[in-house]
User: Which sequence fits this backbone?
């Protein structure tokens, strides 16, 4: 005798709820947000230190 419940035979574990978003769109949204934050940080850094950057240095 085992204490485990019997396996679900209905197959409902294979289908999610009807309003479930695919996980790839969540990951894409997260990656887009990280890229936007990185670009904003770069722009703010350039604005802040524009006059101190030696543009003519080689």
Assistant:
């Amino acid at each position: 005798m085992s204490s485990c419940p019997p396996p679900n035979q209905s197959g409902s574990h294979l289908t999610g709820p009807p309003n479930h978003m695919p996980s790839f769109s969540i990951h894409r949204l997260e990656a887009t947000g990280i890229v936007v934050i990185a670009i904003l940080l770069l722009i703010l850094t350039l604005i802040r230190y524009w006059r101190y950057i030696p543009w003519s240095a080689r």
